[in-house]
Amino acid sequence: MGFTLFKTFSMKKLSIVTVIICLISATMACNTTLVMPEEGNPHKRTWMAYGATTRTWGTSGSFGANRLIARKDLMRIAANIARFEPVSMIVDNEDDEDEARGFLDDVLREHVGSVYSGGKQLPAVQSNNIKFLVHPVDDLWIRDTGAVFVTDERKSLYGIDFNFNGWGQENTGAQGWKKDRKKARNGIEDQIVSNDRRIAGFTIAQANATKVSTWLVLEGGGIEVDGKGTAVCTESCILNTNRNPGKSKADVEAELHRTLGVKKVVWLPGAKAKDITDGHVDFYARFSKNGHIIYTLDNDKYSPDYETTAINKNILQNITDVHGNKLTPVALKTPDSSVVRAAVTKRNGWYRHSSKFDEDTFAASYIGYYVSDKFLLMAQYGDPVADLAAFNILQNIFPEKMIMQISTDGISSGGGTIHCSTQQQII
Q: In order of start, what are the domains of the chain with their CATH numbers?
C-alpha cells in the first residue's frame, strides 16, 4: 500500500545517532535515557490554555459564535480534572482571567451536590486546584503547543520543545521546507501562532524541568505512546515537508527513541491536508496500559474519515508491541452526525440549520478522551445510543478509573477534543 506498517529499530545505528546528537546538545547528559510514560500514569498537574482568543477564532461565523462556548468548555474540563489533580491554566491577560473565573463559577453552580458516574460518587470539585498563570497565548490546543514531559531512570523531569510551527504553516528554516498549498484550497486557513510558539518554553520553565532540544517538528497530538517503547504515529503529519523535510522514517524513529524512549513505531497513513493537523494520530488511535489499541471507526460512507478509519482498522488488527505482545484492538464508533447536529443545536438554542454548527469542522470522536491514574474524562455528543456505548467500552477497558462524560460543543466546533486541550505533567 506504499507505507511501512511498523519497524523495530537497529540499536547499533541508534547508538551512533545518539552519540552524534549528544555531542551537539547541551541540555541533558549523554547517558540519560528518556521515557514518555503512558498518559494513564499519575500526573503532577494538567496544563491547559484559555485560548479561543478573538485573534484566532474571530467574532463571526461558526468559530466566532462558538468562541465563548469553547471557553466555558475549558473551565468545565478544568473543574472536572480538579476533582483529582491540580490544573495550571494559562490566560492571555487579566481580563481573560476574570472571564475564566466567571465561567468557573457557572460550572460550579452546575455541579452543586453529589455527582455520580457509572454508579460511583465523584470527588467534589476542588476549585483551589485550579491555578491561573498570565502569559501571552493564542489558542487552546496545548496538547500541540505545550511541552511534552518525559522522565529518566532517576525520575528527573524533562520537557521537550518540539518546535511547534502552526501545524506546518510557519517556515522552520530547514532545507526543503515547503508549505502545503492544498490546505488553503481545502478551506483551511493559517492561524496566528506567534504566542503559542512560546508556550512550550513557558511550561518547561514553570515546571522547573530540564529542557530537551530537538530538530524534530512534532505536535503532542501527533504521537501516542504506551510508555513501554511502542508508539503510533501518522505519516501524513510527521513525514511531511511542512514539518520535517528530507527526513526519513529512520531519522524520525531515531529521534523519537532519543527523546521519548520509543523503540518501535506503528505507522498509519493518516490524512494529509484534510484538516489543519494533517491527521493527528490522537484522533485515530490510542493505547491503554493493559494492552489495548483503541481506534476510531467511522461507518458513515459520506464522512471524510470513513476511508481513513477503515484503513487504520485493517492495520491495527494484528499489531504487536515492541516486546512482541499482540495488542487487543477495540473500536470506538463515531456518533450519528444527524443526531449530533440536532442535539447540539437544541441545547445551545440555535435553529436546526444554523451556520453556528459546521459539520465539516465539528470533531465528534470519543477517542479524544483525557486519562490519568484515577479518572478518564470523555465527551458526549447528544447521541444517547453512541454516547452510552462509548462510555461502556471505555469503562470496560479502564475499570479502575472514574469515568466522567461531559459536553464540549464549543471545542468540538473548533475541530478538537478534550485531549487536544490538555497536556499532562508527569510525576
A: 6-19+73-426 (3.75.10.10)
